[in-house]
Specification:
This protein is α+β, with helices and mostly antiparallel strands and about 280 residues long. The protein contains 10 helices and 12 strands. Strands 1, 2, 3, 4, 5, 6, 7 and 9 form an 8-stranded mixed beta sheet that branches. Strands 10-11-8-12 form a 4-stranded antiparallel beta sheet, with helices on one face. β6 and β7 form a beta hairpin. The longest helix is centred in the middle third of the chain and has 16 residues.
Length: about 280
């Protein structure tokens, strides 16, 4: 019997760089999952091998050896001594926009294999996730959370606040390593993840919007000028706030409600792909 799971994308509501440790930039980031997902199917094999087939969004070109979905599956089989699996990932999450699609797929594979082989070990899956990618642990369950360090320290947050976003997808991509190098030159920007967290818990959308931030936005704009163009286009709709997710190049606007968001999408005439999203 096949197992099917959904791997949801995320948005960074805040992203602050708090220092460097062991050559890695340490982060403080408020995140949420959104209703955009990759669909993953998994089927048992009789041997220990893992096959992963990628479909859609140009994912077919991802090298097997550097595919996080493959790494996650191989780590699971080795850790639990199960047989392997034939896995197909149907990509709906665009790549290179800061959606965390690679980590989402890895987390989805871990969740799917646990379901396929009836493994009930939340702590063990989190450890495997940490070995695959920095924010894969968070992606195992999604929702609202605050991430620290390399993204492997997860503070789950409980809020009933529903958020609506319009995201634009510039075609210019941002190399994450280059973005952090330029950040080291540009320096920190404003924003307060603690204030944003308090607003989220209080379900105060306006106060949350006032504290959205991304320290990587200025360096990302230097690398991909289309990001600045997308920011201007979104600001023209008068949203509560405009921000970038991850290290780019996806830029989103937070709107008061779903109706305003849908109106903005219907009126957008720019050259970038546009996605209307909501918190999941």
């Amino acid at each position: 019997m096949d197992v099917r799971v959904k791997a949801y994308a995320k948005l960074n509501l805040t992203l602050r760089v708090t220092g460097v440790n062991g050559g890695f930039h340490m982060l403080d980031s408020l995140v949420t999952s959104v209703d955009l997902y990759d669909a993953i199917t998994l089927k048992k094999r009789k041997d220990k091998l893992v096959s992963v087939t990628m479909r859609g969004m140009g994912s077919e070109s991802i090298p097997f050896e550097s595919n996080n979905a493959v790494r996650a599956a191989q780590a699971f089989v080795e850790a639990y001594g199960t047989c392997g699996a034939d896995i197909t990932v149907y990509k709906n999450i665009p790549m290179a926009l800061g959606f965390g699609g690679s980590s989402a797929d890895a987390a989805g594979v871990l969740n799917g294999l646990a379901k396929l082989y009836k493994v009930d070990d939340t702590a063990g899956l989190k450890m495997l996730a940490d070995g695959v990618g920095s924010d894969t642990r968070y992606m195992l369950s999604g929702g609202y959370a605050r991430l620290f360090g390399r993204g492997d320290e997860v503070k789950k947050l409980d809020s009933g606040l529903k958020l609506n976003f319009l995201l634009l997808a510039p075609r210019q991509q941002v190399n994450t390593a280059e973005c952090y190098k330029k950040f080291d030159i540009c320096g920190e920007v404003g924003g307060d993840s603690s204030a944003a967290e308090r607003a989220l818990i209080a379900e105060d959308k306006s106060e949350l919007a006032a504290n959205l931030c991304n320290a990587l936005l200025p360096p990302a704009e230097l690398i991909a000028p289309q990001i600045r163009e997308a920011v201007g286009q979104l600001e023209s709709f008068g949203p509560l706030a405009v921000n970038m997710t991850g290290s780019g190049s996806g830029v989103y606007a937070l709107f008061e409600n779903a109706e305003y968001c849908a109106y903005a999408k219907s009126r957008y005439r720019g050259k970038f792909a546009a996605y209307a999203l909501k918190t999941h």
